[in-house]
Specification:
Helices cover about 35% and strands about 25% of the residues. By secondary structure, the protein is α/β, with parallel strands linked by helices. Helix 2 crosses helix 8, helix 3 runs parallel beside helix 5 and helix 7 runs parallel beside helix 9. It binds S-adenosylmethionine (SAM).
């Protein structure tokens, strides 16, 4: 079977690295997708252990279609009876980009009709009851190239289950894990987030350090699919649990707001890592590093969403001071503030572009001073 992991913008490489570390061979990487071939075992390992992908799909077919008839015929010739069988709920979603077929609702309707007719050809029934498990099917048309894929996750991979309270502008868990992968965080290194908000970066760091699999405590849509064996997931979960480590970490999460620190602590407790994170209420400028050669990742307010322009100037000065305090560390700042480098009075050695939600951001990397 061929699968692909969809990734946040520019996160293909971290996802590829994680698959390789799981012993899963990567077949191809395209914008926003990392492909691999495998069986249910590889799928289960990827679902449970991948930290920074969005979703995992099984690719069912890929073809060119310029008309609705071509779309219907190509979907209809797939043997859907073997994939869905009798009774599955068929839930089709569609995305159309720069193609002749640009109406998602028509693509959805015609795809579903083609699937039903295909099943009816094999299972001779006039009506198919949709009473059992859901099959989320995604049709993606980009420049007339159609991909038909089965969403194996159902719920996006960022839903680990630990984050339940609402903070202002939190990072997605998967995106935070991707930033940690890019920064090269490992259990032996000190880690700090001085603008921790709901705690995402520190919690993800502690989970990486303790080797806690992000998907071990949730379910995946494919566990209920007709042709999948749920026991494969049970053994992947047991394997992940047996590989967790109980070691000392040096992870710090602080924020100026006591309410946010409480929330971060609450989420950390739910994730099972509360005792591995040092929580502090502290303005970022007053924070000092605990240990040498660590990794600092912060996601301060950008101005657009949380603060007004004037307070950004004061905050930028404080961030400049904090970056100085941590000069023996590798420092990463994710910011959508356009004048960030000018405002903090420092030029980053490396800058990478990302999207945090819909907001274009840069990840500014200030190398450790030796
Ligand atoms: C964009 S949010 C961080 C979101 C976080 N990454 C998450 O995933 O929930 C920015 C945080 O910075 C905090 N903050 C604002 N000014 C600060 C300062 N001077 N020192 C420390 N924290 C500050 C806010 O309380 C807020 O929680």
């Amino acid at each position: 079977m061929r699968f692909f992991v969809t990734t946040p913008f520019s996160m293909e490489k971290p996802v590829k690295n994680q698959l390789l570390r799981l012993g899963i061979e990567v077949d191809n990487v395209t914008e926003g997708r990392v492909y691999f071939n495998g069986e249910q075992e590889q799928l289960a390992a990827a679902c449970i252990n991948i930290r920074c992908g969005d979703r995992i799909f099984r690719e069912i077919a890929s073809f060119d279609a310029f008309t609705f008839d071509e779309l219907f015929d190509n979907v209809n010739k797939i043997n859907w009876a073997d994939i869905i069988g009798l009774g599955g709920k068929i839930n089709v979603s569609a995305k159309c980009v720069r193609s002749k077929l640009m109406s998602p609702s028509d693509v959805q309707r015609i795809t579903k009709m083609a699937i039903i007719k295909s099943i009816q050809r094999k299972i001779k029934k006039d009506k198919l009851p949709e009473i059992n498990e859901e099959y989320p099917i995604e049709v993606h048309i980009n420049k007339d190239k159609v991909t038909v894929a089965l969403d194996c996750c159902g719920v996006s991979l960022h839903k680990r289950g630990y984050r339940v309270k609402n903070a202002v502008a939190p990072l997605r868990e998967t995106f935070a894990a991707g930033l940690l992968e890019i920064a090269g965080y490992r259990a032996e290194k000190p880690f700090c987030d001085n603008f921790c908000g709901s705690g995402t970066l520190a919690i993800e760091a502690a989970m990486i350090g303790l080797n806690i699999a992000p998907g071990a405590n949730r379910n995946f849509a494919c566990e209920k699919f007709k042709s999948f064996d749920a026991r494969v997931f049970d053994s992947a979960r047991s394997k992940a649990k047996s590989e967790e480590k109980d070691i000392l970490l040096n992870v710090t999460a602080s924020d100026i707001s006591p309410e946010m620190v409480d929330m971060a602590r609450f989420h950390a407790r739910r994730a099972g890592v509360e005792n591995h994170i040092n929580f502090k209420v502290c303005p970022a400028g007053k924070s000092i590093p605990k240990g040498d050669n660590g990794i600092l990742i912060i996601n301060p307010p950008y101005g657009e969403r949380l603060e007004d322009r004037a307070s950004m100037i004061t905050l930028s000065k404080e961030i400049g001071q904090m970056l100085e305090n941590y000069s023996s560390w590798n420092r990463f700042v994710l910011s959508g503030y356009k004048n960030f480098e000018k405002a903090v009075g420092k030029r980053a050695q490396k800058t990478r572009r990302f999207y945090n939600g819909n907001i274009e951001c840069n990840l500014y990397h200030f190398f450790e001073k030796k």
